[in-house]
Amino acid sequence: MAERNFVKIITDVPGPKSRQLYSEMEQNVPRACAHMTPIAVSRAKGATVTDVDGNTYIDFAGGIGVLNVGHCPDEVVKAIKEQADNYLHTCWHVLFYESYIRLANKLNTITPGQFPKKTIFLNSGAEAVENAIKIAKYHTKRYGILSFLEGFHGRTAAAMSLTGQIQPYKYNFGPPIPWIYHLPFAYCYRCPFGQTYPDCELACVKYIERVFESVIPPDAVAGLIVEPVQGEGGFIVPPKEFLPELYKICKEKGIVFIDDEVQTGVARTGKMFAIEHFAIEPDLVTTAKSIGGGMVLSAVTGKAELMDAPHVGGLGSTFGGHPLSCQAGLATLDLVEKNNLVARANTIGDKIKQAYNAMQEKYPIIGDVRALGAMAAMELVKDRKTKEPAKQETIQAREYCYKNGLIAIGAGIHGNVIRNLVPLVITDEELEEGLSILEEAIKSVS
Ligand SMILES: Cc1ncc(COP(=O)(O)O)c(C=O)c1O
Questions:
Q1: Is 234:377 a contact under the CB 8 Å cutoff?
Q2: Which of 38, 125, 365, 399 is deepest in the core (most CB within 10 A)?
Q3: Tens digits of per-residue pLDDT, 70-112?
Q4: How far does the centroid of ligand 1 lie from the alpha carbon of residue 445, in Å?
Q5: pTM (predicted TM-score)
Q6: Is any atom of ligand 1 closer than 6 Å to the C-beta of 231?
């Protein structure tokens, strides 16, 4: 294998130690808890990882959008170590502590909306979503929730029910929780109404009126949950009017607008939160992934009157807002500001978009390029006219990537999207090297 600047492939990929661990994993871990690569990591820093066989890779996955501040930033590691010397766990519901309060205050300050806010901390994105739904129901005393086709909100019962993808998330896992209704998202490349933006006049938004007439009346709807850019669904960036129109409907009908920023948040899209691109002040915001800088942390932040609706003891979690995670969260958000990662996301996003657009001109297999800031993806198709998804080729391209030193992951309801969630601390040289491996991968399947 050729040696590059940052990537060093010194054995086969996967190497012997990764292969050994993989077979032990197969004996001990259920297959449902699946893998995008057969590589076992030994250490990671910034935007590069080293496997147990000594191979190094550039990381375009960032732990699926968790590592916007990079692998193991010194400041975050230091904060965790210092906290570990003091106390590990008290349970928030028994003894409270300063870092939880400081971090809540930070999220109350940096999330959009000029109104009093409160924040509760939990562990996973799904748990944040579950709690946001509970809060919306409690506040409105209504039980319907609107979510979107192709959307993803997690794997627990309510989060799975809100998710708009059967495979792999819902198939055979039993009936969803009741009173959830899926709406079409503005997936313009594959418009559910067969129309073209802007001539469509947002047929997908108009469709909601029919849902209110035929399926659930608006005064039975507690909340609408939406990803400003659909993540697992394939990095689908809606046209600029889509979210404001949804927001307007929510305001008219007294429906809580829940902005799921689990994947889009913390500078990824070139704003601290993606919803800022659309000048919306959501009632509730769910965050997770990158707010913990690699630690287990999620949150619901929202209007104080909504957050305070549920009775005392109605919300919570044994580990939610763990002291190590809160310290990591504080250090992470400091780093985002200190290193101006919002601006960096725009610079990185521009470079990625330019590279993807140039590739699209050369390789007909790239049907669509979508990006908002550094949340960028390409959708692969067998034929640009029929748009038949090129799922097998996408798998092969990703395999080419990891075998040649780039971790690149997929997305999309048809499994034919390659997404980029590169740590925002990547250097220009690392980014260029990663993009050139990706181009070779695309060439190899074209
Ligand atoms: C938008 C969104 N919401 C919720 C979740 C669920 O997060 P978790 O896997 O931490 O439960 C994800 C995870 O990818 C997500 O992208």
A1: yes
A2: 125
A3: 999 999 999 999 999 999 999 999 999 999 999 999 999 999 9
A4: 30
A5: 0.98
A6: yes
